[in-house]
Amino acid sequence: MDLPRRGGRGAHSAGRVKCGTRVIRGTHHSMSISDIRQEYQSAELVEEDAAADPFGQFDRWFSDVLRAELPLPNAMTLATADTDGRPSARVVLLKGVDANGFVFYTNYESRKARELALNPFASLVFLWTPMERQVRIEGAVEKVSAEESDEYFDSRPLGSRLGAWASPQSRPLPSRLALASKVAAIMLRYGTAPPRPPHWGGYRVRPDAIEFWQGRPDRLHDRLRYLKQGNTWKIERLAP
Ligand SMILES: Cc1cc2nc3c(=O)[nH]c(=O)nc-3n(C[C@H](O)[C@H](O)[C@H](O)COP(=O)(O)O)c2cc1C
Asked: In sequence order, which residues have a C-beta less than 8 Å from that of residue 179 and are 6 or more positions away?
């Protein structure tokens, strides 16, 4: 599946937010966080309607998200862990999905990359708030092929390609200016056709479990988990 390169529309207006079928009038300063409460009632997820494999189910939900023109529909939280089991999480963008897994691109010397080198497992989470949906993905992680990374790198805008060279992701920088001068130096060196930096490329999460969560009334949500068993997927319902 090809994913949109840019994040759709701009930010939602503040103050009045439509959530499912209920409208919350936001006086954010006086509202206590514990008072934020929402009934989930926009849809259901039942075994009879679920796709036979999780990629089919993901395709359906992702089509809904694209149709709804959500901002950053492909933003997902990526959790990794170091060898002591200490987790770290950040948002990255999904750039491809097929039966082999979920692909994102990043710096191969970043914190996430260092963690993945030592502990090649990850968890991904999508939250699509207007649909009251969450998808949780777990599996082993591997680098995508150099050809696949090249192809995606070459499709990126020039500024992003120069940035990939200039930014030592996750390392301390002396100043914003230091970053800008690195970009300028890279531009002088490569002009408008920078090759893919060796320290930049894709990862593929090969899932062995994917859970689809649909919000339902009274906190009796639907949770269907697909578990990989050999070449097939078993579906089980989990308590909310
Ligand atoms: C909406 C959004 C999308 C992002 N997409 C990416 C991405 O695709 N790749 C990436 O390396 N960082 C992306 N980032 C930045 C990461 O969240 C993070 O700051 C960076 O990858 C460094 O993480 P690390 O130090 O844990 O390796 C994105 C951040 C946001 C908020």
From this structure: 166, 167, 173
